[in-house]
Recover the amino acids of this structure.
């Protein structure tokens, strides 16, 4: 099965190269539209579309990983390739685990991942990064919304211990005391609670359970990880699958990226240590990332979120996805293109695209650090 | 009187046709270049196929063997799939349970229905009707499984609530049909979906077998005053039994290996639940499809190991089917 898949991938990438080659040729033939277009040998010129510096970037960049950042990457790639016609960015959203595996096998220039590298993965990366190791660059943040379907309840406030009990099958009905206490005045029905989790392994599950473990250690006894560990509850495939179930099933609740909370799915306001419950929005997720600590060593910018923030309006259940690449010893052929692309996406123009897609931009301080690190890559 | 005994007194088969020996001689004494090239080509392809299968088997067994030494849990009894963890812990008990139970439900529903349709087409339906029915059944086989999955998740699942609450009310005491009232995305729903999916192949093969029942048997039975149902019971069904069994095994093979439809409809939990209406279990193929994307090297090897188990189960099922058919050779369509 794996062999077959590889072959298909190879055929696909061959096709992609052929198509992109043809596109590049036609681009050469056509007239330049407007001033400030890119010149491959012209050094740091600014492109028409904002602040995209193509430098001497060219060639095809292969990358793979997290599907959570797929929509952001798609939007970036569209703008970037309009400006830098000599570069093809080919991001395959096959999942964080597969992305890291491909990167550690030297098949891709960078990987996208919903979780920072584990120590053993950093050790393993010495094989592909000559005399150095892989680092995490935070690039996209996003709130993990808790969508619910409780007839008659327009606003729902929950806190970490209650969420833990709901997802651990301890709270059976919506008119449970713990929920009623957090929602005085709400008309809670006695509908059965149907907590849906992901049936596939997912970075979203990983981040959500990290939150439960950290913010409600007394009620969430599981180790956490990409696979769901608690017993009971129901499951469905993919973020779209669980969102679909919430929409259809009365009494359902589940977690997914904010962009899936559409078509009338209501989201839970999370009670934190701050005075007011926090809504799941891009802005509130950015506030939570701003309060995060950098825990990576050296140039590694792995973040640790504060899951029990006291800051007003900081949404604690936030996912940070990283781009992973070598600190030194990146493939010299694709390095200029990778640096130029990452500089664009970590820049103001790149980050400003995010909130319209349900993601959260990086706070200025962290974005600056990310850009400094990108400039120093070799 | 048992009509089928006529089979025992049927004339012995003819001595092997001389054509066969002539072919052998031709193959051995191939002198013309065309013959030799063709011989080489066909022999080469045969050997290549064997080598390819052996290579795949060796590769799979090697990867599976590697990961089994790292497994901290018992591969056959652990109710957990943490193959990406360090140390990895995983077991196939839940998957084996879910795979076999969902396929069994599918068989229990599909085989009688398929045999009924096949009998209707061959023996009851007016000619004008049997054509279109066969055609529609064939069309069912052409629907891609992901489409079945979508249909199952969007149409079948919401409509199962009524059946589930009925089953729970009257048969809940058995434990097998107890229902907690969750979304009806359970083994029973999957079984029903799989039954619809395997219906075409079981129907088609059964229909072909029933069509080959010697006219003489049926006419003899009719001449003895048998009704149409008695004809079917005494002549058609015994003659077609091995064919129906092989048709069922083909369907069972499909049900065991179905991936996307199950992954879309089932609410898999890594747990065995006696109730068919509550979420519980998972299947090998569904588990591989949903876990492969995020799996690291160890995780992939673990999934390959689980795939090997499914392979072995399928082999056993096929072997059993062949054994059953071999025991009833005298009725097989080929000898009729």
């Amino acid at each position: 099965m794996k062999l077959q898949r590889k072959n298909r991938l190879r055929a696909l990438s061959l096709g992609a190269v052929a198509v992109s080659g043809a596109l590049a040729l036609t681009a050469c033939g056509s007239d330049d539209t407007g001033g400030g277009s890119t010149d491959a040998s012209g050094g740091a010129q600014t492109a028409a579309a904002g602040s995209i510096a193509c430098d001497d970037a060219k060639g095809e960049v292969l990358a793979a990983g997290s599907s959570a950042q797929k929509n952001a990457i798609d939007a970036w790639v569209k703008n970037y390739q309009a400006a830098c016609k000599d570069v093809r960015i080919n991001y395959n959203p096959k999942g964080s685990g597969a992305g890291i595996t491909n990167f550690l096998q030297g098949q891709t220039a960078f990987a996208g991942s919903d979780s920072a590298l584990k120590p053993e993965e950093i050790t393993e990366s010495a094989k592909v990064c000559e005399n150095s190791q892989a680092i995490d660059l935070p690039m996209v943040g996003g709130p993990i919304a808790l969508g619910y379907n409780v007839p008659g309840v327009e606003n729902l406030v929950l806190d970490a211990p209650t969420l833990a009990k709901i997802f651990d099958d301890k709270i059976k009905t919506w008119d449970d005391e713990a929920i009623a206490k957090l929602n005085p005045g709400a008309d809670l029905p006695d509908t059965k609670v149907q907590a849906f989790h992901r049936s596939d392994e997912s970075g979203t599950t990983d981040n959500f359970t990290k939150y439960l473990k950290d913010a409600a250690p007394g009620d969430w006894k599981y180790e956490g990880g990409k696979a769901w560990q608690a017993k009971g509850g129901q499951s469905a495939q993919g973020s779209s699958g669980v969102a679909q179930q919430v929409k259809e099933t009365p009494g359902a609740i589940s977690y997914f990226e904010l962009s899936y909370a559409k078509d009338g799915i209501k989201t839970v306001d999370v009670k934190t240590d701050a005075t007011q419950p926090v809504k799941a929005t891009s802005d509130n997720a950015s506030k939570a990332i701003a309060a995060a600590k950098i825990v990576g060593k050296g140039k590694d910018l792995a973040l640790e979120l504060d899951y029990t923030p006291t800051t007003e309006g900081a949404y604690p259940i936030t996912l940070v996805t990283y781009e992973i690449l070598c600190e030194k010893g990146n493939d010299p052929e694709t390095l200029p293109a990778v640096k130029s692309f990452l500089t664009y996406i970590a820049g103001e123009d790149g980050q400003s695209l995010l909130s319209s897609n349900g993601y959260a931009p990086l706070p200025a301080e962290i974005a600056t650090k990310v850009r400094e690190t990108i400039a120093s890559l070799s | 009187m048992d009509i089928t005994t006529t089979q025992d007194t049927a004339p012995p088969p003819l001595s092997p046709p001389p054509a066969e020996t002539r072919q052998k001689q031709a193959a051995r004494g191939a002198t013309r270049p065309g013959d030799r090239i063709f011989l080489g080509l066909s022999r080469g392809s045969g050997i290549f196929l064997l080598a390819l299968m052996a290579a795949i088997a060796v590769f799979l067994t090697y990867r599976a063997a590697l990961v089994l030494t790292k497994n901290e849990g018992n591969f056959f009894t652990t109710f957990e799939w943490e193959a990406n963890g360090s140390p990895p812990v995983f077991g196939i008990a839940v998957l084996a349970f879910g795979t076999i139970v969902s396929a069994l439900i599918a068989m229990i529903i599909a085989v009688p229905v398929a045999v009924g349709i096949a009998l209707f087409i061959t023996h009851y339906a007016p000619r004008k009707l049997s054509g279109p029915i066969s055609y529609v059944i064939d069309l069912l086989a052409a629907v891609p499984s992901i489409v079945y999955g979508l249909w199952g998740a969007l149409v079948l699942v919401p409509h199962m609530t009524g059946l589930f609450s009925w089953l729970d009310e009257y048969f809940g005491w058995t434990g097998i049909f107890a229902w907690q009232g969750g979304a009806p995305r359970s083994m029973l729903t999957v079984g029903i979906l799989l039954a619809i999916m395997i219906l075409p192949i079981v129907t088609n093969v059964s229909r072909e077998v029933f069509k080959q029942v010697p006219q003489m048997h049926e006419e003899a039975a009719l001449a003895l005053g048998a009704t149409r149902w008695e004809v079917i019971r005494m002549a058609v069904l015994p003659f077609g039994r091995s064919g129906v069994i092989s048709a069922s095994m083909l369907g069972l093979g499909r049900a065991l290996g179905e991936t996307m439809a199950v992954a879309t409809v089932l609410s898999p939990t890594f747990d065995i639940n006696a109730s068919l209406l509550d979420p519980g279990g998972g299947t090998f193929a569904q588990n591989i499809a949903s876990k492969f994307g995020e799996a690291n090297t160890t995780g992939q090897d673990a999934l390959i190991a689980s795939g090997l188990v499914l392979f072995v189960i399928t082999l056993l099922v096929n072997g059993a089917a062949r054994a059953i058919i071999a025991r009833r050779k005298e009725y097989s369509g080929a000898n009729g």
About this structure: Residues 27 and 35 of chain B are 8 Å apart (CA to CA).
